[in-house]
Design brief:
Length: 223
């Protein structure tokens, strides 16, 4: 009885030791497999690497970059190293030149006279045409920025609404203040209508007040 119990203890001990050994081997194997991933190259190339220029990039691996053109400027670190975490100590650098004149934007123009070239980091402010409204909700703004030789940013001018005499006559309505005349209503501007003499509104009176939404406005109807 004692011998059998002793064998069981030895077997359990052996199983635990084996489990620990397998765990250690698995952890060691995973540690050896840690690598850093290559990133997209933007006007740069890998000049030299230690121990080499191609993947896999293991911890301690160093890459040194150079711009593809001597006229380009490098943004970021020239040399980066793969860390034990599997991440680079710095992002891949990028190379870019100066920007030319800022691009044209629909229904907008630059606030100031433009230059023939801009340095990276310079920005240009835009203004929308009369009656147009600048959209300042993300991702839009009033600026375009020169970044590494390219203009970045989003600008949008929201369109006004056109309220014509023809559209109002077609629906038997007129302006509450102003009668029968053509008007341009900016984005989010409120327009109040009234039924023409002798006609009645179809629906609730709330329909007589309408708002312009980027060039679109709903018209009430009177018969």
């Amino acid at each position: 009885m004692n011998k059998s119990f002793g064998k069981q203890l030895k077997m359990k001990y052996f199983q635990r030791v084996l489990f620990l050994l397998l765990t250690i081997v698995d952890v060691s194997t995973n540690a050896q497999e840690v690598t850093c991933e290559g990133e997209q190259l933007s006007n740069v190339y890998v000049l030299i690497g230690h121990p080499g220029t191609v993947s896999p990039y293991k911890p301690g691996h160093i890459l040194v970059f150079r711009c593809t053109d001597v006229n380009l400027e490098m943004y970021g670190q020239r040399a980066i190293e793969c860390l034990s975490s599997g991440k680079w100590d710095n992002p891949y650098p990028k190379c870019g030149g100066k920007c030319g004149p800022p691009p044209q934007v629909d229904s907008a123009d630059t606030k100031e006279i433009t230059k023939t070239e801009y340095n990276s980091g310079e920005r240009v402010e835009y203004l929308c045409f009369s009656k147009y409204t600048l959209d300042l909700s993300p991702p839009y703004s009033k600026y375009l920025t020169c970044e590494q030789g390219e203009w970045r940013g989003n600008i949008k001018c929201l369109k006004p609404c056109s309220v014509t005499v023809e559209e109002m006559d077609k629906r038997g309505i007129q302006l509450r203040w102003g009668g029968r005349q053509k008007v341009f209503s900016p984005h989010q501007d409120r327009t109040t209508f009234a039924c023409q003499w002798g006609k009645s509104l179809i629906g609730s009176r709330d329909l007589l007040i309408q708002y312009c939404t980027d060039g679109v406005i709903n018209f009430p109807e009177c018969v």
